[in-house]
Write a structure and sequence with these properties.
Radius of gyration: 16 Å
Protein name: N5-carboxyaminoimidazole ribonucleotide mutase
Number of domains: 1
CATH architecture: 3-Layer(aba) Sandwich
CATH topology: Rossmann fold
Bound molecules: 5-O-phosphono-beta-D-ribofuranose
Shape: globular
CATH class: Alpha Beta
Structural class: alpha/beta
Strand order of the largest sheet: 2-1-3-4-5
Order of helices and strands: EHEHEHEHEHH
Domain PurE: 2-150
Function: Catalyzes the conversion of N5-carboxyaminoimidazole ribonucleotide (N5-CAIR) to 4-carboxy-5-aminoimidazole ribonucleotide (CAIR).
Largest sheet: 5 strands, parallel
Number of helices: 6
Catalytic activity: 5-carboxyamino-1-(5-phospho-D-ribosyl)imidazole + H(+) = 5-amino-1-(5-phospho-D-ribosyl)imidazole-4-carboxylate
Organism: Sphaerochaeta pleomorpha (strain ATCC BAA-1885 / DSM 22778 / Grapes)
């Protein structure tokens, strides 16, 4: 199976990005994590993105806060799908949301909700599942479990 790369702009993003680690571990998807900043280590960020496909990655998740240019600079240097996680380091994350989502024509970043690291991992799993029937079955099973959990709560409330 192809790996997922989780890249974050600062070690201060790590507690939030660990939500993605957990989801990928639950689905037994191989991943590794890196700290590269679009501003503090731009050369290394670009080098990482440029070699990501040949290094065996299938999807990149990029989390950053404030002027969150990380997902964009990675997307500009690879044709792998890049999922951006805007992080609420300031202004409730609205700054990072706009910096991540408002990409120019031709260089898309699939942006999840502010602090949505768990959903970013689920989306990465869904992308990899396009070529992996076993993973696809696990995701379908997870959806059914979610449905059952909500219906159980509904039953309890209605009683
Ligand atoms: C961004 O600025 C990082 O992604 C982080 O969310 C935010 C603050 O970084 P630190 O000042 O905590 O390193 O580059």
């Amino acid at each position: 199976m192809m790996k997922v790369a989780i890249v974050m702009g600062s070690d201060s993003d790590l507690p939030l990005m660990k939500k993605a680690f957990k989801v990928l571990e639950d689905f037994q998807i191989p991943y590794d994590a890196h700290i590269y900043s679009a501003h503090r280590t731009p050369v290394q960020a670009i080098e990482f993105a440029s070699t990501a496909a040949s290094s065996g990655y299938g999807v990149i998740i990029a989390g950053a806060g404030k002027a969150a240019h990380l997902a964009g600079i990675l997307a500009a240097n690879t044709i792998l799908p890049v999922i951006g996680v805007p992080i609420s380091a300031s202004l409730g994350g609205f700054d990072a949301l706009l910096s991540t989502v408002q990409m120019p024509t031709g260089i898309p970043v699939a942006t999840v909700a502010v602090d949505g690291a768990g959903n970013a991992a689920l989306l990465a799993a869904q992308i990899l599942a396009l070529g992996d029937k076993e993973l696809s079955a696990k995701l379908s099973k997870n959806r059914i479990a979610m449905e059952q959990s909500v219906l159980k709560k509904n039953d309890e409330l209605e009683q």
